[in-house]
Structures are given as structure tokens and as C-alpha cells.
Sequence to fold (651 residues):
Amino acid sequence: MVEHRRFGNLLPHLVLLAGVAIVAFPVYLAIIASTHDNSVIANGQMPLIPGSHAIETYWNTIVSGTGKTTREPVGGMMLNSLIMALGIAAGKIAISIISAYAIVFFSFPFRMTAFWTIFITLMLPVEVRIFPTYKITSDLHMLDSYAGLILPLIASATATLLFRQFFMTVPKELVEASKIDGAGPIRFFWDTLLPLSVTNIAALFVILFIYGWNQYLWPLLITTRDDMQTIVIGIKKIIDVHDALTEWQVAMATAVLAMLPPVAVVVLMQRLFVKGLIETEK
Amino acid sequence: MASVTLRNVSKTYPGGFEAIKGIGLEVADGQFCVLVGPSGCGKSTLLRMVAGLETVSGGDIDIGGRIVNAIEPAERDIAMVFQNYALYPHMSVYNNMAYGLRNRGMPKPEIDTRVQEAARILEIGPMLDRKPGQLSGGQRQRVAMGRAIVRQPKVFLFDEPLSNLDAKLRIAMRVEIRKLQRRLKTTSIYVTHDQLEAMTLADILVVMNSGRVEQIGNPLDIYQKPATTFVASFIGAPPMNLMPLRADEIRSQFPGDSRAGDSRATREAGILGIRPEDFLISSDAIAGGIALDLTVEAIERVGAETFIYGTRQHEVQGVAANPGELPPGEVIVRIPGAIAPAIGERIRAIAPRDKLHLFSADGRKRIDL
Fold:
């Protein structure tokens, strides 16, 4: 149903503009705030036009860190966040794609049991199993390490399920053709299944990267060293200061910086992302 | 180049279902063997057992003097063309054909020679860089064949390779497959449910029904002398007219025949078969032949020939229906040309004695007249 009337598009556009304004205004405000001096924001009169301290603020935030609130520059936190998010996304994809491969293409005893066991873990996110998980991580001396940040989070029932659904649509003749062409299970996986899964992997990567980047509770628990903290925790620490004025321009700059990588991932992978979610061509 | 021999091959699925019930078959070197039968008769299963994609429950499969029951598909030296082509969608046409050769560790220059040669034979040279998704159905079919050719296998296996094509292309590809096979002289086993495809392609035709072989032989022999009523109604379109006859009818129909007249078989009830094209519309009677009085119910004109569907005047009792068999009482008559009687008209169809087929009452045995 596509209609073309001169003013018929007016109302939908107004609704869309209102929606965009509601979402975008806080972001705009954060960007504006990060370009002003702290005193301007602190006196309660938030300007709506950019100030002149942008370069200074971002330099201090990223590179030198500000002595008063957080001892670490945000650059380091971003690196931590990036390593954690990439590690979680890559780990989740790697583990779930091979579990789905096993479940769909091989028949072994208790195959469905394995599948349902994975499925049930959907009900056990980190928040539910946080004490045992912490205990294990701590016993393995993985506190304050990248391994500790990443490993406990990389099992993913959702991704396994998604790959399973996709693998089930792969025609069985393709497997048989591979067999006749002399490709064993590993070769079939690398040469055929993986290339066919590229769009699915990309779509999952976007979702999982953002999931990893936004992790708060788990990094908060297991990182105590300042140089291991992630940017999401950093924001909280920058705002939460005692006996001093909150450096709002730094907090806002950090928030803007924290937004950039997920936005970049979405923008760069958008085409593959959409394809991966809707495409059924085989 | 190799012969394929099946010795008492059977297949039972874990659930107890017997898909193949002991089949023996010999395909000589360079022959084109077609397995034909209705869906569910086990023809694809049998082919997949030869390919090594299904395990063998009993008997031996022998390719070129080597029993291959326990050998991996890749080591059986076969190539298979699938119904849905099963091309690798992410690989170019070239890589689709080269993939199997690379996996065998063949040197690059030789792979290239073989792929180029296959592309030349199949006229897909300009498409080598394209992906299967950019090709038409017929072109994909050619690539699938190319993938089989480059391997230079002992045996080609075809699993209904033409059923995804439109009718016109199917006929063209059918001729091409035959020419190609003649040229390469590679032993081939071809599965189809299309009896016309089976008739035109086969050196040896194997008619299968519910896991058993009904008849093996030269296609024309099978057409002219079907061994059972199943074969009679499956091979040939429209199917052979089958009419149950009582013992006394048989006696009066075939009296004094030196061979059959005294045999026990003709004294029992049986089934009479007449091909639609063996009828003549005539008011005369033929000595020793059969005459049927029909009321015309429907007429199909296809140009060069006309099919008349009529009902017999005197009803006879129904027989157990086989696939493709006429409803009891209905007779199809094929006459050349487009001139046909009107609907409702009464006609007499006659068939000469030597065109009659007689089967035992259960349809399992042909009685030679």
C-alpha cells in the first residue's frame, strides 16, 4: 500500500520527526555539554549551542585523564571495553557456531539432550548465576584480567539457536555433494558452511558486540584495578565523586565516546546486518 | 570405465521399514541404466546406496570389480548430479567444478585443463566466473553436470536431474545428457519417475515398485512385453487398458490356441491388456482379435493424435487398482489424426490378436499367448 498524495506524507513525517527528536535530543545535549567549561554547566544554565572547549575537554578525557575524578584516561578504558566486546562477540560466535554445527549435522547419542541443555541456559543469564560464576573466576585467578571479563560471558544459547535455525535450511544435498567431492566434516565447515553463514555472523556480531560493550555488572564485580575498568563503569565513576564538583563536561565527553564504537559497528555492518536478518536466498 | 553390479542388495531403515527388498542388477561398462518407478518405490534410495550416501543393509554393491559397501563416497570414484543441483552457492562456477579436484590434491594446471574442457563441452565457458545464483535453471544443470564430468569418474549417478526444469528445456537436456554419455562412454545410472525420460535414455531399463524390481530389460522389449500389469500400466502414456476377464471369457476369447489353449493358466481368470494405440475403430471383427463396444465419454485432441475415452457396454468386475490404471470399465483408444467420433456416440474398437497381452489374475505374471 503505497500512496502518493501531496500532503498525505505530512503526518507520518511529523510523527517520525517527533520520534527522532525525542531520541536525538539527549544525545545532542551530551555533545553540547562536552564542549563547554565545567562552570557553565555547573551553574545550572545548560546552553543549547556548542561552546569553545571541545578540543581541550576531549584531549583531557581521552589522553591525560583528569586528576580530580578518575585517575585513568578514557582512552585506556575504551581499549578495555573494545577488547572485552570483541572478545565476547567473537567467542560467542565461535562457540555457538560449532555447537550448532554438531547439533544439526551430526547424529550422536543424546544429541537432542545436548540441544535442550543449551536451550535451557537461556534462563540462566549472568545475573542469575553471578555468585558461582564469580567464585569460579576468582578460583581460577582471572579477576582483573581480560580472560575474566570475557570467558564467563561467551556461552550463548541465543546464537546457537540462531545458527541452528540457519543450518537447518541448508539443503542436505549440499552436504552430500561435499561428501562426494571428498570434503570431510571440517572441510565442509570451512569451505561451505562458514562462507554461507557470513551474513548471519555479521548480524550476530553487531548484536553481540553491543551486548559486550554495554556490560556493566560483571566488569564492576571482577575489576578492581583502575587500569582494567571499562568505559561504562568509567562514566559512573566520573559522575560519582565526593567533595568535589562533578566534571560534567568530562562525563558527557565520556558518554559520547562510549557511544561511538557501537554506532560505528552498526553503521559499518548495517548492510550485512539487515541481509543477515532477512535473507533466505541459498 | 567400469561395470556396476548389485547382488541381492537390500535396505532396511532402523524403524524396520524395508525400502529395498533384495535387488540384483548388472550394468555393463558404458551402459546407461535408468531406474524408473513411482515415488516411494526405492529408486532414489538404491541410487544413493550406490553413491555411498546410504548404508547397505544386505548384499553387495560392486563397482568395477571392487565391493564398495564400506567405502566412503569420495573414494568410490563416482560423480552424482542432484535434483536441486546442490551447487555451492558462494563459489563461482569454476570453483564449483574445481572443488572436488582440489580436495583430491590434483595439481592446478590439470584442474584448469579439465575444467576448461568440461566448460567447452557443456558450453558454459562464458559463465565460469559467475555464481550459481546468477544462472538460469538450465545453466545450473549444466554446471552440475560439469562438476560430474571433471572428475572423470567410473560411474555417473543422476538423481532426477531434469525434474526442476520446464518441459521444453527438459527435452533438450535429455537429448544432451544422452549425447554426452555416448561420447564419454561412462557407465551411468539415472533415476527418474518420468517414463518417457526412462524410455528415451535407457540402454537397460529397470522398472521398480515398492522396493522390488518389476522388470529389467531393453526399453522397447519392456514396452512390448511388460512382465506384470504394474509395468504395463506404468510404461506408456496413456497407460495400457487393463480388463479383468473371467475364466470362461478367456476360454472363449482364446480358443484352440495351440500354445495357450490347453495350459492351466488360460483356464483361470486373468487380466487382458491392450495398448491404446493398438485399437482400430472399425465395425469389422478381426479373427482371433477382440472387439469392444464403447460409448464415447470424452475426447482429447492433441493434433497429431486423438485420445478417445469410452466406457464398455457390459460392465465387468473391478480389479485391484494399480498406479496409472484406468478405472474399471473405462478404455482409452488412441487414433491418429484429429477426426474423432462425437461424445455419446457408440463405437466399436477392435484389436488384433497379436496385440493382446494376458496377465495372471493377480497381475504379477505375464502369460505368453
